[in-house]
Predict the 3D structure of the following.
Amino acid sequence: MTLFHPEPMQHVSLFMRFDDAPKVSVFLANLGLFDPNQATITDNNFPDRQGVAYRRIFNRALNDWQKVSEFFNIQPATKVSKIESINKTTLLDSQTRLAEIWKICLQHKEKQRYVDKQMDSVDHLFKLLEHFSNLDIDLKLLKRNFEFLDVRLGIIPISNLTRLKQALSIEGYYLSSYLQETENAHIIVAGIKESAKTVQSLLDSASFQYLQIPDEFQEHPQIVYSKLLEKQKQLKLELNKINQEYQGLAAAHTTDILEMGNILTLAKPYAILSREMLRNGQLTEITGWVPKNQVGFLHSYLDEHIHNPVVIKTRHPKPDEFKQTPSYIARPQWLHPFQQLIRNYGVPSYREFEPSWFFTLSYILMFGIMFGDVGHGATIIFIGWLISSRWPKVFSFFVSIGLSSMLFGFIYGSIFAFEHVIPALWMSPMHDPMLMLNLALIWGISFIIFLNIVSIYNRMRSFQFHQAYFNANGIAGLILYLSILLAIYDLFIHQYDYLNLVLILLPIAVIFVYQWQHSNIQYTERFLVVLIETYEAIINYLSNTISFLRVAAFTLNHSALAIALFTLAGMTDGVGHWLAIILGNLFILILEGAIVGIQVLRLEYYEGFSRFFGGNGTLFKPLELSPNKLVSVTKT
């Protein structure tokens, strides 16, 4: 395992009989060490067109398998039951069977959807019936169009009820309120049609809203209610029957679905490799990447499991392949949470410095410096333990930063913000703030110098020598940064001379010329653009260095919050005193702890990764036999 860059890779070409390709594909996936890539087409070979039909069948079968698995909520197996190759006929049979099962599922879903729609309709009618439940009359009478009688049902605000009743009585109309709610009244209005137009005007002024009686309501409200209740009961019985049918379907098809998931898992490797493999008669070629230390094992593994000979040719990656070569990063399990933070920024290229160890150790160190407290660190570890059952991968992250916080808590003599309970191994940061600021600057300068060296190392390994020598993050940039630091130091001790200016201007000139030569814009604009870029390089060095003062600032901030906490707690006695201390510690732990974590990540990303880390690499993704990772092979 290499510490500071991805594992060395070998480009592997496998030559075999065409008939053996499906079997070789399966065993390569079972090995889990082969990342395929597109082979180079020559005059003597051509793509395997027979794989097109195989992939189409695979994708159709997989699409149906995913739908039926989701329908029956079937969790796929963790591994395949038997290692074997899947021919086109077997795959087609599985696809046909899955299509039949999905058709049955669709019929069941349609039946379920119809009954659910009926249940929703009944529930809606129950709600509508509440508007008419207090009427002691057949509702169909209220829907009739009488020759002389005008009958209306509706809702008005309660505040308008008395006034409207009086106004309607003048027109010979009768108003009765049969249901009153908090703000509205349900009313029935009846009278002779001769005054209908005048009555309509009165109703509009009273904000009258008509109530439409559904066609299903043809009898007395109590009878309607009973019939709706009976229909709801019948629908529930139908739903129970449908659920029983679902259970029966699940029991009948679960074994088949799991078995076909197994078949699709075994078929997937060939479906993938058939896109890339080349043929020359009966000879087939598969190419890909394998970790260098596993090539010998690949030889012996295929010799053991493939009866016919498989010829293997290997070579080192070529310089023009470095960007396409996958990065295989083998790190201890406890580093994985920190690696995920790195992945959020990018993936290291094959020849690039792999920052897992540096990022992890520097992150843990800076977090502890900025948030040093024995009690808070122990609480962070406890929180990690509490959530480890749900999110086991983050446990090591919480333990690491918690231990760092505890270590610096002992150095500062701080436990739950108390600074006089345990003796400090060194001192509290507030005792000498200037020393803390100076140490933060030294740390930041060391951080930037180291990563500048890493940037030079990356470019050297990738044969980008001009960038390594003349780029703002190359040797010229490093000399510029050291010259600026030297000039600032000489200014402080009053020994500044013209040599300092020369040491600064020379690397600036080198960077300016380099950027000038690599700029493709017109001459009239090039000078201004290159000048700004050179100026930006200088400012970045200075601003990045100053940014590390936040390490000291948050260290002092932690102590300042502790002082503020005990000042507030000192204003109260008894229970209030301890309640203030507990709540204050929670505030510091949650708010400041989160801010410190984010600020450390910001320093790593913007002052660190931006200096050396391209993050444009490709992760090593070998073929594997994982039923729970089945995805479509979309390219045909």
Observations:
- The two ends are 37 Å apart (CA to CA).
- The longest strand covers residues 9-17.
- The chain has a mean pLDDT of 89.
- The beta strands are 9-17, 35-36, 46-47, 149-157, 174-180, 184-192, 209-210, 278-280, 283-291, 311-315.
